[in-house]
Amino acid sequence: MSSRKRARVKLAEVAEAAGVSKMTASRVLNNGKGFSEETRDRVMAEVHRLGYMHDRMAVAFSSHSSSTFVGVSIPDLGNEVFAQVLEGIERRLNSSGYQAVLCVSQYDTASVDSWIERVLQWRPAGLIVTGRNHSEQGRKLLRQADVPVVELWDLNTSPLDLSVGINHYDSGYAMGRFMVERGHRTMAYIGTHHDTAHSAKSRFQGWQSAIQDGGGTVEDTYVLKDTPGFYGGYYATEQMLSRTADLDAIYYQNDNMAAGGLMFAQSRGLSVPGDLGIAGWGDLPISAILPQRLTTMHVAHLKLGQKAADSILAAIKGKPVEEVTSIDFRFVPGETI
Amino acid sequence: MSSRKRARVKLAEVAEAAGVSKMTASRVLNNGKGFSEETRDRVMAEVHRLGYMHDRMAVAFSSHSSSTFVGVSIPDLGNEVFAQVLEGIERRLNSSGYQAVLCVSQYDTASVDSWIERVLQWRPAGLIVTGRNHSEQGRKLLRQADVPVVELWDLNTSPLDLSVGINHYDSGYAMGRFMVERGHRTMAYIGTHHDTAHSAKSRFQGWQSAIQDGGGTVEDTYVLKDTPGFYGGYYATEQMLSRTADLDAIYYQNDNMAAGGLMFAQSRGLSVPGDLGIAGWGDLPISAILPQRLTTMHVAHLKLGQKAADSILAAIKGKPVEEVTSIDFRFVPGETI
DNA sequence: TTCAGTTGAGTTACCGGTATCGTTTTCCTA
DNA sequence: TAGGAAAACGATACCGGTAACTCAACTGAA
What we know:
2 copies of one chain form a homodimer.
Chain A: H1 11-18, H2 22-29, H3 37-50, H4 56-62, E1 69-74, H5 80-95, E2 99-104, H6 109-120, E3 126-130, H7 136-144, E4 149-154, E5 162-166, H8 168-181, E6 186-192, H9 198-213, E7 217-224, H10 230-243, E8 249-252, H11 255-267, E9 277-279, E10 296-299, H12 301-316, E11 324-326, E12 329-332
Chain A binds a DNA duplex through α2 and α4.
């Protein structure tokens, strides 16, 4: 590492070099009014010559304004659903001149809390947090902070501030009804940590209600303590089929788990949906290459992220915002139910 | 939104309430020395009672120190490889009290440049950028900034500052040699935008050299303008097999594309590796559920991210750091070559 | 010619902490 | 008990910009 230590060029130096006051230089940089063409050119010339860099820290401090940071907390990047949502958020924020400050919480509430506390100390312009079940501590911090907050992912009809999400219960219910309509009766569910993945649990509950309403039964559930991925689906299916006989169909937390189930079924020569029906959620990329088109629920993850960013940006700029933005899902019939 | 507008409690108020000077209160908050037990308790009591929040913006400004932000630029979150790397980075940074400020560049150099410029204005503690081929503008900014920089992903033996990465060329060469050794001769490559995905190109070049050194030929390459995913691999394989006859084996940019190829082969009743050999890269989660174990190269993506974070943290704290950290890959023989 | 309005630019105070140095008090030892 | 070191705390200046105000010069209409 070289030890370049020349101090940052400051506005006062630029101003002096250009033969004007700091204030005039500041006005030029902020594209305000109150200076002549000629002065502007002189100042800008010095800005470039000296390599002046605007010190946003000083600005935020001096003008008592907030930063251009937006805190974004998501539970897990190994889950591609959230990776997509994050990408949607980041694109929008970035193109509006804001920066995403990331927290990957691993579904750990305490770690979200401490992150919220730390990030608030930096006067963020806004916060986007995944989930709606905050700790008491987190809720208090969010309320205290005079900052727009978007609760993402789970639709919350009485949000802390703003909410952008999906009605997971309804999407689960819709899938459950379809499965019953197609003649399945003895069902099971495969997913991951219910205690923290609140949205997946909502889907499960909606699905379960639909099964019961339709006269079916939920014979078994398998809940892994892991990220909802391919191998988890494969493994849990194996376990489940060996312990519970005569299952008609399995509902998975997402398409990746369902793909695992489908590949397991294939490896055992089970016909789908004849011997076993399989339903996923999310319409994830994997479903495009499976031997059969997966029965699933399409969700525009990228769009969801973008909508969340739109909401927070509007709130930051003081524009009117819908408190609650519901993102649609679309049923994909597929061939596995 | 409620219009709670009570001003933030400031240190001076806490100090007054506790009957001490600002300075003493500051000392207490920073766990320094120079105050009694009793004073500490009085101050802390007021901190909690008034809900004081430390204004890091003012601190960074006043003490002329940098922030706790580390800029992290990655090309694409749809590519789960980078999602994993990012998660590794974030975990380490977060547990050390630093925050990741994200940029998803979509492989667009200009957008990285403008992000670098903006994020530098916030006095970041360090920067982690993916890739080693920066624009002239970007290089200049990075050099000018008196901030540690890690170039991630592509190993760079003469880095701008620090480098943490993989020797992609070697990993491609190793795979190429294996393919030749197993008797494949007529080969093809499937990947995505070569112009910008520098690392994938390095793998391709290493692989190509190995093929040529071993007496094989590279008959065809198919380069998609898309993120390297399942369907891209499926589609490109279909296209390639219809335009180029008698291929022995295909080398894919990563496992997800290879999985697409494998599923296509299965759908056409081709035997693998008898009719067509398939090799991937990355040992991604999908390979765990495929009908055959994929021949691939294992890379510890999470660890790579963590190492990058470790390097930048050491540099931030002025500790000695290896300029270049090479992350190993491990060959996975699999059953598809 | 006069005077109000506009334009270009400078002056001053301040944002909320911390570094630095100075002062007082406490405590220990000769 | 004096004296000096250490501990506890306070006063002041400053970090690098901008808000708000002031002021001079110029413009144009009465």
